[in-house]
Amino acid sequence: MGTRTPVTPVSSTPTIRGVLRRSVFWVVAGVGALLVAVIAFVLTGSGGTAGPRLGADNPAPAGGMAVVEVLRQQGVTVVPVDTLDEAGDATAAAGNATLFVSDESGYLSTAQLARLDDLSSRVVVVDPDFLALQALAPDVGFGGVSTADSLSAECTLPAAERAETISPGGKTLGLPAGAAGYTGCFPGENDTYSVIERVTDDRTVTLVADTAVFANDEIATYGNAALALNLLGAVDTLVWYLPTLADVPVTGPPSLGALTPGWVTPVLLLLVGVTITAMVWRGRRFGPLVAENLPVVVRASETMEGRARLYARTSARLRAIDAIRIGAVARMAQAAGLPRTAPLDQVIRAVAALTARPPERVQAVLVGEMPGSDAAMMALSDAIDELERATALAARPPGAGPSPTAPPSTGRMEP
């Protein structure tokens, strides 16, 4: 026998070019998503808010950075705070300070609002809600939105007289006629005003109905800047107070986050990072497996005995008999002169015709019967072997010699 030329296994490990070719779509998709995110950020960031409304460091149209910077240039010390306790500490440290308050979200309770009057002798409240009016100016109510084309001071309040006019169309406050201790400025219809000041003893509370007077986009129109600077720059220190969730009283039992030590969160994040790194490290793939011939000769009996032990251990009788049937059907189809791709029904009819047996019996042996015990499986295996021998004998041409015997097995599984 000639020496067979060894077959060189074809490696299916992906090349760098192949990986890049398959990754083009995801790279393009990622770049496109990044561009869309950048464009959306630019479009929304230019007109959106960069912080809370009237924030001291918010340069957006609704922020208050413009008036704060002008006050600082004029020598006023502006102290931004976001809790009531910080506001109290800042006003106490300054001694004489103006307190600016804008509680847009209504975080302060009635008791907290009542404290504002005690923190400073000069308090300016912007866009007060119902609780703020009840706590600081009980006689003042809501007046709706002004429909006047212009708003003139028409009062003796120095800051309003210097401003002369403010931008029209904003919110107003209602003040009953003859209310003692109150001064209304920039009047509208039906006893409504845009600015109301209440003076009691040595304390002054100024209520500004609309935030446009202090907002960046309106501060330079009409007399808004003059009104804001005169109200907030009367003394050397201005405490700029915007309440936050930190002012909301905590009720109920402490949360899990409050009970958890501070080191737990960093440790959890570190563990998550280590887990992801380990998954990437140990879970990497170098590509599909390469098909190679075994460098050793494996005895066929070893494979047969090992598979037989597995079948016996799991009582997989049907799988074992199916393996026998598949081999027998292929050999009987070859003996009957049928192609290897012939359907099972055609093989059954051909075998039944050659062996003069009922097709139902042949089908039962090759397909139908299911062994329920080891003895039944052995009996069915013998029946299959007997049917295969009968088929081979019937398919032998007349006058042919005895059936050739199979060559002796070498006990090895050849490649």
From TrEMBL:
Keywords noted in UniProt: Membrane, Transmembrane, Transmembrane helix
Stretches the record annotates as Disordered: 391-415
Residue ranges constituting the DUF4350 domain according to the UniProt record: 57-232
Listed InterPro entries: DUF4350
Bilayer-crossing regions: 24-43, 225-243, 263-281
Name of the protein in its database record: DUF4350 domain-containing protein
